[in-house]
């Protein structure tokens, strides 16, 4: 039986105190699914990259409903830590639902999002065959670089 475990963990504020600060999250994936090139991977992504992923999945999935992301609230009542934790939980729920959906799971963009540290423009050009590597090469290159493996 195929099992895919995806965890969104370790939120980190980047550029703290500056106007362009943001939070990114570690996405840990462990699977025995034939759908994935690497069986274990670990990447960091920020909220706006999840928004991009959801939009791409929606565009490619046709009538298949794509799970919702947690809201982008700039008027959150409570501490910043509470907000970050709620968002982390929402992002994890989103990914758990996505990897359980066979149609969404077949989207190459999802695999590059979860298993490479390519930027969004690099993911798009890789999928269109305009990058220096194939999708599989990009994922394996990242996995072999040790960045993709949990230390």
Automatic annotation (TrEMBL):
<keyword id="KW-0963">Cytoplasm</keyword>
<keyword id="KW-0472">Membrane</keyword>
<dbReference type="GO" id="GO:0005768">
    <property type="term" value="C:endosome"/>
</dbReference>
<feature type="domain" description="PX">
    <location>
        <begin position="3"/>
        <end position="120"/>
    </location>
</feature>
<protein>
    <submittedName>
        <fullName>Sorting nexin-11</fullName>
    </submittedName>
</protein>
<dbReference type="InterPro" id="IPR043544">
    <property type="entry name" value="SNX10/11"/>
</dbReference>
<dbReference type="InterPro" id="IPR001683">
    <property type="entry name" value="PX_dom"/>
</dbReference>
<dbReference type="Pfam" id="PF00787">
    <property type="entry name" value="PX"/>
</dbReference>
<dbReference type="GO" id="GO:0016050">
    <property type="term" value="P:vesicle organization"/>
</dbReference>
<comment type="similarity">
    <text>Belongs to the sorting nexin family.</text>
</comment>
<keyword id="KW-0813">Transport</keyword>
<keyword id="KW-0446">Lipid-binding</keyword>
<dbReference type="InterPro" id="IPR036871">
    <property type="entry name" value="PX_dom_sf"/>
</dbReference>
<dbReference type="GO" id="GO:1901981">
    <property type="term" value="F:phosphatidylinositol phosphate binding"/>
</dbReference>
<keyword id="KW-0653">Protein transport</keyword>
<keyword id="KW-0967">Endosome</keyword>
<dbReference type="GO" id="GO:0006886">
    <property type="term" value="P:intracellular protein transport"/>
</dbReference>
């Amino acid at each position: 039986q195929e099992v895919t475990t995806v965890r969104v963990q370790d939120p980190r504020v980047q550029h703290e105190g500056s106007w362009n600060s943001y939070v990114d999250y570690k996405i840990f994936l462990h699977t025995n699914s034939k759908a994935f090139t690497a069986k274990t991977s670990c990447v960091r992504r920020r909220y706006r990259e999840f928004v991009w992923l959801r939009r791409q999945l929606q565009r490619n999935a046709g009538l298949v409903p794509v799970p919702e992301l947690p809201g982008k609230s700039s008027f959150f009542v409570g501490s910043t830590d509470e907000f970050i934790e709620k968002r982390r939980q929402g992002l994890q729920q989103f990914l758990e639902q996505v990897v359980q959906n066979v149609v969404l799971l077949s989207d190459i963009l999802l695999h590059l999002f979860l298993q490479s540290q390519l930027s969004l423009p690099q993911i798009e050009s890789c999928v269109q065959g305009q990058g220096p590597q194939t999708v599989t090469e990009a994922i394996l290159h990242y996995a072999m670089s040790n960045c993709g493996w949990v230390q």
